[in-house]
Structure formats: structure tokens, C-alpha cells
Amino acid sequence: MTVIECGENIASAAQASSHSMAEAEYPKIRFGVVGCADIARKLSRAVSLAPNATLHGVGSRSLEKARAFAAANGFPAGAKVHGSYEAVLDDPEIDAVYVPLPTSLHVRWAVLAANKKKHVLLEKPVALNVAQFDEIVAACESNGVQLMDGTMWMHHPRTAKMTHFLSDANRFGQLRSIHTNFTFAVDADFLENDIRVKPDLDGLGSLGDEGWYCLRAILWAANYELPKTVIASRKPEINKAGVILSCGASLYWEDGKVATFHCSFMTNLTMDITAVGTKGTLHVHDFIIPYEEKEASFYAATESSFDDFVTKWRAQPSKHIIKTDIPQEVLMVTEFSRLVADIKFNNSKPEKKWPTISRKTQLVLDAVKASIERGFEPVHI
Amino acid sequence: MTVIECGENIASAAQASSHSMAEAEYPKIRFGVVGCADIARKLSRAVSLAPNATLHGVGSRSLEKARAFAAANGFPAGAKVHGSYEAVLDDPEIDAVYVPLPTSLHVRWAVLAANKKKHVLLEKPVALNVAQFDEIVAACESNGVQLMDGTMWMHHPRTAKMTHFLSDANRFGQLRSIHTNFTFAVDADFLENDIRVKPDLDGLGSLGDEGWYCLRAILWAANYELPKTVIASRKPEINKAGVILSCGASLYWEDGKVATFHCSFMTNLTMDITAVGTKGTLHVHDFIIPYEEKEASFYAATESSFDDFVTKWRAQPSKHIIKTDIPQEVLMVTEFSRLVADIKFNNSKPEKKWPTISRKTQLVLDAVKASIERGFEPVHI
Q: Which residues 93-122 in chain A show a CB within 8 A of chain B?
């Protein structure tokens, strides 16, 4: 197996130049965190570590909870602590908000944030359905604020390297089939009490929490070309309240590309992309959260073949290792803050790429859900 | 990543004991090769290398071709060379035949071989459909001869190690989802002239040649429990003569297990098993032909989880390396010959395990084909 180290600290080097620009030209973007979800701990740490962002405030329905959260998550001494989400949005010093609230609350709070001229970093799934997301997009567009979803792996330098491989007509050729999965095993308490099994909170369940990543990876590999037809797999697991605990689907494109995915709360932690092209193959087994924080790898194969007696491979896949000093969630916050600063201080327009790919992901996710609801009938997009 | 070397030369050690028994007690099993297909070169080499088997004869429709094949493939000086398949079957000194003929000819020649009291090592797919295979099984049973298909990876010591992992309730738990694929990119000449694109020869195309392995792997992982329902993927590629060039399917079990597979003549060489259980995950990327002839590996993960901030994995998959002095196809020939010797010299009954799993594989393969033919309708098994 050939091992290729793709330059040391790619992110570090790349960021160094953008930091110096951001740091030299613009003040740091001031974040407000709307809600104290568990994932907000990771995001708050990322804001602390981002060179062009700072934690400015946090709001919870309970002032006590907000205080405890700020104290535990490295908020600076002057950070504002609020006993409501509204108070965060009303703080004129806050530039941008991070919204980790349950999916059912996204449309309300993201639209309100946009209307209060706050830029919005929104947890995934972005909404309960694409119609709700379109309300959020419309509010952000009419208020000129940046919208980005919290799909962190998009910002890992490994992803750029993998994109490069998938785009290489000589090494990968054309994508023809792809399989992705994301599963993790939850405990009895989760199955009883987590917001992700509650129809009125994260009502999309495993499809929203895990399938989102699988579908994003498929769209990413397909250069964001939407499939024409989506057919959900039979036998999804659904709890008594009607929330999906495991499911999957097949996706079909006009040109014959085929994708499948599987997601589940009921099996061991697994996250794979297997993308097969006319000339090459991509394998990655930790695409959402890399095994290690500062180093990640993928496997690329090109024009693989057997020896004469078909007893071994002639060209084996090579392992590509990408090092990064800066974790992917910090790169996400940095990129979001860079766009916000560019709007705030440089009169730039919001970057449409991010809401566009969020919308496509939600659109396909909606189709999977519709196919399940219609008894696994094909749903055309 | 933890790397675990599973004992040096497992196969070598295991075989050493069975050889000494076979060699001490019984003469070598004498093989006749029926047809000079390309794959017969590999199998002839395997017979030469097997301690309990010997190349005794080869037959082709052309005597010249048979002569050239014997000369090029290490047949001993006294080996018989025949200008017909019948002559091989009529040679009273031949114990067993290897049948690498096109699938459409299997039923005729395997049945005839069995009726001539020859044990049958039969290439895959074993027949054009399960009804044909049942004729072969009936002929072998009534003549008391061993039947085994040529699925070599079943005999690699890695497979036994992986079976052990999948059967481990503590490390793997219960299988819930599995994806397999087998693809390779053929050239223009293959698409025009190879027997695998000809409806009257290997009429099952990619499904028979590649899908066979995907389905076998799925059944193997499911402990050979048959799925209840099979639904072919849409958009299979089919040539003008009606032969499948790429296809896939979803398989469903009563207990909620789900499997998907994809096979294709049109994309890069790729062969994966991704099996996800309630407690563990198995990954292998070269399950049919290992990257190396004498060393193979797989990845096993158990109770994987994240660190507190969900920025990296707590327990990463471990890589298990299995060394073998004896290639898998030689182990296959050795096991087949051991069974034949036990019948011939020890009055044993044929081992039913092998035709049983061949039949199950063919049964599911037939269901995939039927689903394609019925416009991707569910087919119940």
C-alpha cells in the first residue's frame, strides 16, 4: 500500500494566509449561541479557536442554564448571558448566531434571526422540510445575511483533496455508483428521551440526524447534481411515535448513476463513503468525524487490475493522509466568519453556495421521507 | 490503528496436518479439466500446488488447444490430452473434473460428469437458474459424488477469521445491514466478444460473474439465512443482446436486516464488504481476490464511540492481518480433494454444505434477475 502524505498541516498553511487577512483587516465576528444543546459545546469551542470569531453571548430559556453553559464553555469574561433566545437576537453587538435548537424550531428562530440582521450558522437538518427551509433562505436573502449549515466535514481539508480526486477524469473518471452510511448505537435512555426520537422536536429522527450526512456525501460526490428518482428501502425502523430510527434509500440519476445509503440509531458507529467511478475508487471510513482530530486519510485507487493469474492486485489503492492543525469545525466557523466579515466590512453579497447545497440535501431528504410514507414508491425530484 | 497479526501462516499450519493425513492415507485425487477457459489456468496451477490432487487430463473441442493448454499449465508428462469433453469424462482414471465452461453448458456437462461418477468442481455461477442447478445436484446425489462451486474466497483463512468476528455476539452483535460490491472495468473487446456478454453463453452477464460474489458475501454474513424479499435497483445497464452489464438490488429479511449490492463491468475494480452489526463493523476491500497472494487483512470495529467533544473516535477499528503460505484457490482444491478422497477411500457421504450454499446463492441471484425482468417489482423467496 502506497501511503501519500498530502503536505503537512494543509489547513494550518491555508488558514494562516486567510487569518492574517481577516485579522489584519477586520474585527472578529461576534457570535451568539441560541440554545445550550450538547453540540453547542463543540461549536463554542470552535468559535473560541477560530482566529476571526469570538463568543459574545449565549441564550437559553433558563438563565441559570445559560450561565452554566457560558462558564463551562470558555466564554470570555464580558460575554452576555441571556434567559431567552430573543435577547440574543436583540443584542446589537452580536453579528452572527449559531442555532443548535431542535429541528422543529429552526424555521421560527432562523427567520427571526435573519430579520434581526443576524448571520445564521444553522445546525442540520436545516428544517423539517424544504418549504420551511425556503422560508429561512428567503429571510436571509431579503436581509442580506449569510446562511450556512453545520455540516463540518465539508470544511476538512481532506474533503477538498477527495473532491480533487473525484473531479479527476484521469484518476477517477465518471462517478457511476456510490454507497454511504452513517450509523451509531444509542442507549435505552436515548430511545426514550432524546430529542431525536421525539416527533415534535427532531422529528426526522435518524434520517435527519444521520441520513443528512449520507445524502450530503452522495450529492457532494455527484457534484451536487440532483437525482431524478428516490426510492426508500423497505423495513425502516420506526418508533411508536412515528420517528425513524433506521432507514435507507436508492437514488437514481438520468445518466445511470446509482447511489444507496443506510442510516441507523441501532447499530455500531460506522460512517463510510464508497464511490466508484469508471477509472477509480474512493474509500473513506470516518468522513463525518475523522478518527483523529488533526490527521485524516482516505483511500484512492486508479485503474486497478489483477496480475496475470488473477491471484493478486496489480495496483493497490493508495492511502492519502492529510494533516491539519485546525479541526474541521474551527475551519467551518472560520469560513463562515470570513464570509460574514466580507459582507459586514466589505459590502459583499452572501455566498449562495452554502444555502444551495443545504437546500439540495433537504430536498432529497424530503424525497426519502415521502417514499417511506408512500409505501416505498418512487419519488421523482 | 491497532494492527493484529493473526498468527503466521495459519493456512500453512492447518494444511500441514490435513496434508499429512491425506498424503499418508490416500493417493492423490486425479483431476480432469473440461475446457480451456482462461480461469482454468489458475485452477490448474492450484491443482498442481495442492498436496492431495494431481492434474491428470484436459479436454477441449480442439485437440490442439488441449495440447497447448497442458503444455503451458504444468500438466505432468503422462497427463492425457483429449479433443473432446466426453473423453475426459470417459477416462476411468479421472476422479474429479473441474468445469469452467460457459454457464449455459453447466447443466449438460456437470450432469454428465456426475453420471460418469466424476466428482464436480463447478465454476460460478453454477447454472443459468436454480432449476438447472437442481438437476446438477440431483445427478451428483444419485451418483454419490461431491459437488462444490469455485468460489475461492470461501476457502481463504481470512474468511474463517471474519466469520468468527461476525459470529461473536460480544464484538459484532447481530448483523443489521450489509453492503457489498464487485465491479471491474472491461475493454471494448470484452463488451463485443467476451462470453460474459453473450446471451447463449454466460447469459447472466455481470450479475452471474460479479453479482454472484456479492450475493454469496451477503448470505455468508447472514449465516446463510435467505432474505424474504429482493428488489432490483433501477437503471441496470443491459447490452443490445439483453445481457446485464451492471445491476444491483436490495434484500430484506423478516427480522429487519437489510442488504444492498452493486456489480458492474463498467467501473474500476472494486470489491467490498461493509457489514454493520449492533455492536461492531466489518470492512474488507479485497474479499474476492486479496491484494496480495499470501497476506490478507480486514478491519474490525467494536463498540466504536466518540470522545467527549465529538472531535475524534474513542476506539478505532483494528486491522487484522492473516498470512497464508497457500493461496485460497489451492486451499479450495485441497478441501474439495479431501472430501473426494474421503468418499472414494473411506466410504464417506458427500458434504452437502457446499451445494447447499451454491443453491442459495443461485436462488437469490434468480430473484434479482426476476425483479429486473418484472420492472423492479419485489420478488419473494
A: none
